[in-house]
Amino acid sequence: MNVKNFINGCWTELGDLQTMPVTNPANGEVLALAPLSTKREVDEAVRSAKAAQKAWALVPAPKRADYLYEIGFKLKEKKEYLARLLTQEMGKVIDEARGEVQEGIDMAFYMAGEGRRLFGETTPSELSNKFAMSVRAPIGVAGLITPWNFPIAIATWKAFPALVAGNTVVWKPSNETPLMAYELGKICEEVGLPKGVVNIVFGTGPTVGTSMVEHPDIRVISFTGSNATGSKVAELGGKLLKKVSLEMGGKNAVIVMDDGDIDLAVDGILWSAFGTAGQRCTACSRVIVHKDVKEALQEKLLAAMDGLVIGDGLNPETKIGPVINRAALEKINHYVQIGKQEGATLLTGGRMLTEPPYDQGFYYEPTIFTNVSPDMILAQEEIFGPVVSIIEVGSLDEAIQVNNNVKFGLSSSIFSQDINKIFKAQTLLDTGIVYVNAGTTGAEIHLPFGGTKGTGNGHRDSGQAALDVYTEWKSIYVDFSGKLQRAQIDTQ
After folding, report:
1. Which DSSP string do the residues of 256-275 spell out, in sequence order?
2. Which of 25, 79, 248, 482 lies 20 to 30 Å from 279 when distance is taken between CA atoms?
3. Looking at the domain assignment, is residue 222 inside a domain?
4. Same domain for 239 and 294?
5. How much is the pLDDT for 187?
6. Same domain for 148 and 169?
7. What distances in angstroms separate CA 295 from CA 171, 262, 268, one per listed residue?
8. DSSP symbols for 152-179
């Protein structure tokens, strides 16, 4: 099967474009070939999006929303098919894949509802016989650059608010997971979305991504990915005075206090740390635990890990699937070796699985280090794999300090039964998301998603906050006095 670009409502022939294989990380099976597009295809997509945008912006927002409802119904109808395909191309276990497709369904219906809101404000004027209000206006063409770990959910976080607000879209999915984008493009075609409103261009970041960021007719860029790439996107976009929304890395921590429910904390840690094989920006990478319960927590964690079945995500018994590719596998192992060299104690795991039945895929043992100090590389840098560092603290204040002493600020969690500790923590934890008595993952689509410091640049995906990325505020003054009124001059 060949994956094709979707430009101006048509699936374009590959022509002279090179292709790359789309590989199942569980077993090495080649699923499809995807094009490695060039600047030429980006230019075609942007021309299409720009030409379509003016007419699309004039479609009443509730009518734009009707397309999102139809897309949501199509996603719902195809949920099981899409989930299985997602597991094949990305590796996450089938239950997680179903949950991710559901997230796309939820986002379609949620943002469709915004088509009857898109609220502005009215406010009293300081002058007589004058009316003042603000409204949201679309920006134009939105460029979306999305990652492989949530290939449909994150795409819907970005595309659906952009569309309902009156923008058109040029979307570059990840090279690793183009099949979800291909399927979503087919759904856009099936519901009759006007030509040029959604365009999908497959290819590499340095070629397609850079061409998008530098294109003068793309006025807003929304990027999710690594800090290194996000910094380059911000630099290029800033020079061109574009609006740039960045959602990048995390070094997320679960805090377990001495009065916390240890069994519940174990469940939260296992799910947060090892779900999606640790390949979530919100994954739990650190456990900050009070010294009085550290040993008990470690014992229960190790016992619970005996039930984690590793394997192909399509097997319903599997709890941990493969990581995305060999480079990811080697990066994870590199950090594990650093942890050993730094003097952390390896409690369990720490190995690439290379013997049958794992030899055709990319599998890493779930890994826990203890006796980790907060300043170790292991505790500071994002690993993006199933590796957890246990850090001992003596108080809530120390736990908060350790949590905040990293360059990221995406998600944090605290397990405690003390309401005073909980409220203090949720106030002082320097992250965009805080969970209480739950792990560090599980964001809901109607709340803002994003973080502080090195995690992002102040914008948010999801919730009504996402509309701020894809709209400009326009202030409107209607003077019906019949004379020139000079604002502050005539109010003295």
Report:
1. E-TTS-HHHHHHHHHHHHHG
2. 79
3. yes
4. no
5. 98
6. yes
7. 48, 11, 17
8. THHHHHHHHHHHHTT-EEEEE--SS--H
Please compute the mean of the pLDDT values over residues 317-336 and round it to a whole number: 97
Each residue of 131-153: b (16+ CB within 10 Å) or e?
ebeeebebbbbbbbbbbbbbbbb
Question: Which domain, by its residues, includes 146?
Answer: 6-248+456-476
Instruction: Give CA 482 to chain center in angstroms.
Output: 52
Q: Are residues 338 and 422 in the same domain?
A: yes
Q: 281 and 163 in one domain? A: no
Q: Is the domain of 217 the same as that of 309?
A: no
| Active-site residue list | 247, 281
Give the C-alpha separation, 427 to 29, whole Å.
48
pLDDT confidence tier of residue 207, bands split at 50, 70 and 90? very high
The CATH number that applies at residue 392 is: 3.40.309.10
User: Is 446 within a domain?
Assistant: no
CA 79 distance to own-chain centroid: 20
Is the torsion defined by CA of 388, 392, 397, 398 positive or negative?
Answer: negative
With H, G, I as helix, E, B as strand and everything else as coil, classify residue 12.
Answer: coil
Q: Where are the alpha helices (DSSP H) in 294-391?
A: 294-305, 326-342, 377-380
What is the average pLDDT value for the chain, to the nearest integer?
Answer: 97
What is the percentage of the chain residues whose pLDDT exceeds 70?
Answer: 100
- Through-space distance between the first and last CA atoms of the chain, rounded to whole angstroms: 72
Across the range 275-296, mean pLDDT stands at 98
pLDDT of residue 491: 73
Which amino acid, 134?
S
Kindly state whether residues 345 and 402 are assigned to the same domain. yes
pLDDT tens string 393-429: 999 999 999 999 999 999 999 999 999 999 999 999 9
Are 241 and 111 within one domain?
yes
* The pTM of the whole model exceeds 0.90: yes
Closest CA to 152 of 448, 445, 454: 445
Same domain, 205 and 114: yes
| Residue 294 Cα to chain centre, angstroms | 32
Quickly tell me which residue has 């559901």 as its tokens. 102
Whole-number Å distance between alpha carbons of 297 and 302: 9
What pLDDT was estimated at residue 182? 97
Element (H, E) at 129: none
Residue 448 in domain: no
Q: Which residue has the tokens 């927590």?
A: 297
Give me the number of domains the chain comprises: 2
489 assigned to some structural domain: no
**Confidence bin at 451 (pLDDT 50/70/90):** very high
What pLDDT, in 10s, does the model give residues 128-162?
Answer: 999 999 999 999 999 999 999 999 999 999 999 99
What are the tokens at 471?
Answer: 């709209």
* Residue 1 confidence (pLDDT): 77
For residue 229, what are its two tokens?
């790439």
